[in-house]
Design brief:
- By secondary structure, this protein is an alpha/beta fold.
- It has one domain: Spore Coat Polysaccharide Biosynthesis Protein SpsA, Chain A, CATH 3.90.550.
- About 40% of the residues lie in helices and about 20% in strands.
- It is built from eight helices and nine strands.
- Strands 3-2-1-4-7-5-8 form a seven-stranded mixed beta sheet, sandwiched between helices. The protein has a two-stranded parallel ribbon with strand order 6-9.
- Strand 2, helix 2 and strand 3 form a beta-alpha-beta unit.
- Helix 5 (about 130-150) runs parallel beside helix 8 (about 215-230) and helix 7 (about 180-190) packs parallel to helix 8.
- The radius of gyration is 17 Å and the shape is globular.
- The termini are far apart.
Length: about 230
């Protein structure tokens, strides 16, 4: 019997937060499996992953042979998912895993609908330490998504995306870095799926704390949105 939800966690140099985030996901009152995909970490993350894999029967670890990016790591995790639904969880502490339950609740309503559920950082929940430039970049990319794909969402770049497993495993995507977010959003919308949003908490970190995204990723995201509007 399939687990209810597969929680896919890409990991890159997250020794400070990895154990905490896994413990928080494990505490969720839902049937689950946890899939860690290590993107060739250079700190002690891999040692911690080995310990966690021995500790938990519902946790598996896959290790990339070289650093390939978040999108590439998620591709590995999605491939191995067995749950009815699949959700992305970052390995830092920016997102509260308890909010996954909110996404699942919305997904369970009207199960026959063609839908995915995103967690939005801009719908009224607690939001701490998001800079002006980060906020502006997210807003601009989301507006471009709405214009190009005739939808209305508030947070395209959110980590929290909950998919039916059959859907995410059927989509071929090519982005290896953070441009995964616009590519997968574009392909979901082009398949006729609706994106539902729920408010979530967000506790942003900065460059000193290990934030990996840069302005170059913003340009890559714009290109992805435009490109996948016209090609598959």
């Amino acid at each position: 019997m399939n687990t209810k939800v597969s929680v896919v966690i890409p990991v890159y140099n997250e020794e400070k937060t990895l154990e905490n985030i896994v413990e928080e996901v494990q505490s969720l009152d839902v049937e689950k499996e946890i899939i860690l995909v290590d993107d060739f970490s250079k700190d002690k993350s891999r040692e911690i992953e080995d310990k966690l894999e021995k500790k938990y029967k519902n946790l598996s670890v896959y290790k990339q042979p070289e650093n390939r990016g978040k999108g590439a790591a998620l591709r590995v995790g999605f491939k191995h998912a067995k749950g009815e639904y699949v959700v992305v969880q970052d390995a830092d502490l920016e997102y509260d895993p308890k909010d996954i339950l909110k996404l699942l609740e919305v997904m369970e309503e009207g199960r026959d609908e063609k839908k995915v559920v995103y967690g939005s950082r801009f719908l009224g929940e607690e939001r701490i330490s998001m800079t002006f430039t980060h906020t502006l970049g997210n807003k601009m990319l989301t507006i471009l998504t709405n214009v190009l794909y005739n939808t209305w969402i508030t947070d395209m770049e959110t980590c929290y995306k909950l998919f039916p497993r059959e859907l995410i495993q059927s989509i071929e995507y090519h982005s290896n870095r953070f441009n995964f977010e616009p590519e997968i959003t574009a392909k979901i919308l082009k398949r006729g799926y609706r994106i539902y949003e729920v408010p979530i908490k967000y506790f942003g970190r900065d460059w000193k704390e290990g934030k990996h995204i840069s302005w170059k990723d913003g340009f890559a995201a714009i290109w992805a949105l435009v490109k996948y509007r016209f090609v598959d």
